[in-house]
Amino acid sequence: MLRYFIILVTFVIALPANAQDSCEFSNDNECDEVRYGGQGYCDDGTDTTDCRLVSQGISDDSCQWANDGECDEFRYGRGGACLDGSDTTDCLQWQADRERNFMERALALELENDVIRSLGNNTCRWNNDDECDDGNLGGTGACTPGTDASDCIALVNGSAGAADGDNSCLYANDNECDEARFGGGGYCADGTDANDCSAGEANISETPTGGPGDTCEYANDNECDELRYGGGDYCAEGTDTTDCRQLAAGLDDDSCQWANDNECDELRYGGGGACVDGSDSTDCNNYGNSPEALARLLELVPDTLRAQLGDDSCEYANDAECDDVNFGGTVYCTPGTDASDCRAMALGGEDSCRWANDNECDEPGIGTNNCTSGTDVTDCADVAYLRNRTDTCSTAFDGVCNEAIGGDNTCEAFTDTADCLGRSRPAGLENHFFGRDDRFLVDATQMPWRAIGSIDGYCTGTLVGPSLVLTAAHCVFDEDNHLITPDFFYAGQSLGNNMGEAKVRSAYAFPGYTPDSAPAGGGNGDDWALLELASPLGDQVGYLNVHELTATELTQIGRSGLIVNQAGYSWDTGDNLSGNSGCRIVQAFNDSSVLHECDTAKGDSGSPFLLNLNGEWNVVALDSQFFDAEDEKSPFGQANLAVDSRAFAAEVAARQ
User: Fold this and answer.
1) Mean pLDDT within 182-192
2) Are both 580 and 639 inside the same structural domain?
3) Distance from first CA to last CA of the chain, Å, rounded?
4) Which residues of 129-166 are buried (b: 16+ CB within 10 A; e: fewer)?
5) Which residues, at least 6 apart from 235, have a Cβ–Cβ distance to it below 8 Å?
6) Which residues are 562's β-sheet partners?
7) How many domains does the chain have?
8) Considering 184, 228, 293, 608, which has the largest number of Cβ atoms within 10 A of its Cβ?
9) Model confidence pTM above 0.70
10) What are 258-277's pLDDT values in tens digits?
11) CB-CB contact of 486 with 471 (8 Å)
12) CATH number of the domain enclosing 600
């Protein structure tokens, strides 16, 4: 018996008078307004053209590609050649076919009716991609539970092999795990390579025998994009094989036909890409990012300017960031001691970085840090005015410019940015603001702010007991992923003072924590830790209670968001505590992580999100990390991630 999950809207919803196409995802044929069944990437009234049919309850065949036997609507994950609602007949048939295929497979596996019902339907846009996206069934969480049945059928309890799945994949039993859920290349649907994946991540495939090795969209461009071989991580392991063939074999030679022509032709060094990475070694050692190449570039600088650049004797030299204030850098190097990093800035900037002209600013401080200062000027043009600017002045965020230019000269230059330049912020900044910087300087002498403190000047923590501090797990691990114990916790630090300090006696991190980020809802709720202080500082300055989010509050997050306050030690506010008032937690996942829209920056890691209950402030989450925009239109491109109190409330209570 076939099951159909088509809901026809028969009433007309009037569009607001001010409807427009101001959303960044407008005019792509996909309705992204949640009120019309979209993914919610556009606010109501900002994706009008794409929603013109579905907003009126129209489902017709007005698309020029209608009735060609292929569903072309974006809302079904089918390419988007047709506007949502304009390829109805084809999409109804396509949906019916995938339900039929699902039922045939379920019957072949002899699944019980209750098991079939637990799988749900196939209405998720990421259905039929061979990856289970139902978080309740062990998938990525990208699909609403119960909407990715076909991809998850081999994982549900009660199927052949129970939760381990079966071996129906073409590449099963080849001693390589090919399931995406275990980090394999995705050549097998989740649950169909059971024997090979029984050891989980210990047996991951690279390119299965006879399988595709160039499936990445950036394959065959002569640039190796796999992270394990030094690429930019734009391709998953085993999907850029041809481009990575030299580096994978450990070769760095002159096998390219254009080698030894005194021009570096490898894309990894910013060359034109005529040679595959690793095949133009001699030319690229002279002209690439090697020490020899950097020395050669300095030799090309005019003599007078070269003398001003000086040498690389500064301790911060060769870190890709210009630290010579004479060339627009920071003040961390004595003028004339950071030559290589400041070369491009001294010349007025250029687009010599390999990631130049990719529409993303990659320079330090204002971008991703993938390019040396001044080598990505076109992409960084909109944010260059914020280079080396901070809000470290004690009167920052008060609405009055206190710098010398345009102000009363009571703040040092570049330290009162929000007041002197305004709070609007271009997209693409490394700081994680939502169009504008809404932070303010917090009075750290008052509760609840005085219970928040700095951990050795690089992370934020909160007193949640007389001697107990809550923070992020990644704040207590070093670069080699070893647990470390910070030295001191400074409560209520701000304006050069603090309300009290204590030595840290020990650190505890959730045992399951790893530094790797998972997909949405895929295990990011482990990033929390507790510090035990050597003295009961909380009895002196006060501490906050932890409130575990309730089912009602979680429902509110999903509907309209939960209003909270947040405060932490952002990198650009020095030792001053900056915060947000009335920002929102907007999405909750089953792994005890949430997305929020509070303006945060580096240094805010571990900072608390506070909910007022009956007149008292309670900790309900802590800041964890920022996710760059992912493929499609991921919500991670629009919000920051925090770990909520469901993860740590019990442990905090047990240790108080």
Assistant:
1) 68
2) yes
3) 57
4) bbbbbbbbbbbbbbbebbbbbbbbbbbbeebbbeeebb
5) 216, 218, 219, 225, 226
6) 585
7) 3
8) 608
9) no
10) 888 777 788 777 667 788 88
11) no
12) 2.40.10.10
